[in-house]
Amino acid sequence: MELRRVELDFSDAEVRWTPNEPEYAHLFNAVSSYVPYLEGMMNKAVMTLEKQLPAGAEGLRHDVRNFTWQEGRHARLHMQYNYLLQDAYPWLEAEQKKIRADFTRFVEQKGPKFTLAYSEGFETHGPYIARYFFEDSGGRLSDWDQPSVYLWLWHFAEEYEHRTVCNHLFHELYGSYWYRLYGIMYATIHLFSYVGRVSAKMARWDRVTGEIPDVWRSRLRRARAVAGLGRVVVPGLLKALHPRYDPAEFPAPRRSMELLAEASRKYGVREPS
User: Fold this and answer.
1) What are the CB-based long-range contacts (under 8 Å, 24+) for 49-52?
2) Which of 26, 136, 184, 238 has its CB 3.0 to 4.6 Å from that of 199, i.e. a possible disulfide?
3) Quick one: DSSP state of residue 246?
4) Other Cβ atoms within 10 Å of 261 Cβ, number
5) Kindly report the CA angle at 61 between 129 and 65, in degrees rounded to 5?
6) What is the pLDDT of residues 175-209, one digit of tens each?
7) Residues 6+ apart with CB under 8 A from 125
8) Mean pLDDT of the residues in the chain
9) How far is the first Cα of the chain from the last one, in angstroms, to the nearest whole number?
């Protein structure tokens, strides 16, 4: 796991970064809107629980620390990008406050076991969405020079890279199959409900403001985008529910390691802690 000092200039970034299918971008813009707050919660959970690891778990402890560094970098850049989203969608900040309050409540009221299980729920989808971006996007994400596109490709390539951390930490400390399933399903329902609601509002806003001219074609494109994501997420989720599921066995999406190698050369690498 490498630690890359990625910096992106969003001054010319596109909010509708799939111009022929803006509804596709809406889905992931909705994800971006909660990413800084979710990853803050995840980092709190794993840093708290790292202290409970036994003396012989130095490899996992090392991975936890590098995981938090990577996630912190993701949060920082998504926060910068989200200012563009807030400008484009003036109502978005109110939605962000609601989900941020949920994450705060999880930390304060449900505790680290729940927040780790929830974190694994989000991380479970990372490798599958990475494969969706790199292998099944139909050329939508071919422009690596567009900072909005590069943000997502880099982010989910690193999600693949640290895919085992929450899973292995949960197994090391708790080992409860049923509680792990509870966390995965809770996170999936909570996060995808938010994404569905917020992305639909983005699409409606763009139609009303004239950014998207044809309402019925827009609705059809949105249906295709949601169905395409579902074809990746649902099978991946079913595999993750197996008692012997181990994300370490998931193969790297094509070109994802190429992008990470390029990011390492371009932005430099901080030595792992």
Assistant:
1) 49/112, 49/116, 49/169, 49/173, 50/169, 52/173
2) 26
3) -
4) 12
5) 60
6) 899 999 999 999 999 999 999 999 999 999 999 99
7) 188, 233, 236, 237
8) 90
9) 11
Six-digit token pair at 119? 């974190």
CA dist list (Å): 155 to 130, 163, 242, 256: 9, 12, 26, 10
Q: CA Rg, the chain, in Å? A: 18
pLDDT at 151: 92
Q: Which two tokens stand for residue 201?
A: 């509002």
| CA atoms of 173 and 166, how far apart (whole Å) | 11
In the chain the domains, ranked by start, together with CATH numbers, are 3-270 (1.10.620)
pTM of the model: 0.91
Segment (H or E) for 192? helix 177-208
User: For residues 98 and 80, what is the distance between their CA atoms, to the nearest angstrom?
Assistant: 19
Tell me which of 119 and 140 has the higher pLDDT.
119
- Cα–Cα distance, 50 to 54 (Å, whole number): 9
Torsion angles phi and psi, residue 124, rounded to 5: -60, -35
Output helix, strand, coil percentages for the chain, rounded to the nearest 5: 75, 0, 25
167, 246 contact by CB (below 8 A): yes
Residue 32 burial by Cβ neighbours in a 10 Å radius (0-12, 13-18, 19+):
buried
3-class DSSP state of 56:
coil
Distance in angstroms (rounded) separating the CA atoms of residues 247 and 126: 10
Give the span between the Cα atoms of 210 and 14, in whole angstroms.
16
The rounded distance, in Å, linking the Cα atoms of 156 and 126 is 6
